Sequence to fold (340 residues):
Amino acid sequence: MAEDDIVLLAGSGEGGYAVNAFLPASVTVRQGAALRWDFPWYEPHTISFGRPTATPITSTPSPTTYDGAEFVTSDVTFGPGKSYTIQFSRAGAYAYHCLIHAYQKGTVVVVDASSSDADSQATVDARARDEYSAAVAELKSIASAARAAPIETHTLPDGTAERIIKIARETPFGDVQQYFPPRITIDEGDTLTWRSAARTPHTVTLGPFPAGVPLPGNPLVDAVSRPANSYEGAGYWNSGVLGIDRELGTEFSLTFTRPGTYAFYCILHANQGQAGTVEVVARTQPSPSTPPVVQPTPLAPATGTGGALGSREVPVVALLAAVATLGGFGLWLTCRIAKR
Fold:
């Protein structure tokens, strides 16, 4: 890279958290300099200047030159090793955005080539760290509150229990990609209900994803798969896309009728760490006459979700990580699921 060129980040994250922001949000460069956006995390983003004037949207190959007069956009991109580069040929202030995340916006200020007001890579990196830290701290605060809350438990009319696993809310600049609790033990015959408090799309999925690329727009991601009235430890089960204002609503329930340990995950975010396990133990005493009761159970301290599945989740997470690099721009932009 040339001396005046600068590297930015298009989003970032860590296990269980996605920060959907350009880092830093604003940068000043000299005329003729190039900006390279790196994509360090597995949440998809675009680098888009201007507004499209035709459909379908066609991406602009990287590297490209921008003078403020046309629409320029990257492909939908995510994952370590991916980048997009634009050289700025005219002074001015240029707003840009991500076509997927409504609040993800940035500004590039291009000053005269002789100006001393341009950012250095060191100043850009410092602001990026500060902005990331603030965004992820807010997400971790949400997760901490969800982790500390008791598990909501209801006794059903037949004496079995229903327990609630929650999907925490998001912020305008990021998502908590976790289940709360990520690990739970229930009795044989009990029911789990996953409840989302987010507009971000999530799924509850058990069993390997069928053949195909598990990206938004793939009909298998959205399709509900419920092979039977109760889960006995085998087959492919999928809630479809859950969330506030989603067609399928915010809840998905399964009754577990066979002891064992079972992995569940979100198709869209498993490669970001959104996964968990349920241990079903043999019921020792039926209690059909037990009166209804709400009995909170404190959560055990979380140790993260990325490696919580054990051997059962390895093929699924490996599949999702492998396909994370295969996203097509037409598929994502034609069929993407708007997050907000």
Q: What stands out?
A: The two ends are 36 Å apart (CA to CA).
